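job 3f2a | input accepted
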Amino acid sequence: MTKPKMKRLLFNISPVICFVLTFVSARHFPEPAHQLVNQIYSLYVNDTVISVAMTAAVLAVLLTALVIMLQVVYLVVEKKTMASLFWLSSFTVMLMGGTAIYLQVMQNLMRS
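job 3f2a | predicted structure (112 res):
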């Protein structure tokens, strides 16, 4: 595989890579991740705390959404086309991350 094709492939699947790395890191270091998520979340929602169990999924979805937005801005500024693989990987990651958060919330509601 040539160098430009490899760079393009990595760019297109970077949302998946970002999600997986963030999720694994947040699971490996739960306390700092939990503090970071609660600090970010408290900027937008008052009196709500994210549970430790949801921290990894929430942080991974937030960071991946930021990466996707930055990539879209870059592609628009550079006037480059957006590959369907980029949109597919972005959609899949956000759907799976959102589903993980939703299922965790539902599980917590069923327990209470």
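job 3f2a | The CA atoms of residues 12 and 85 lie 6 Å apart.
job 3f2a | closed
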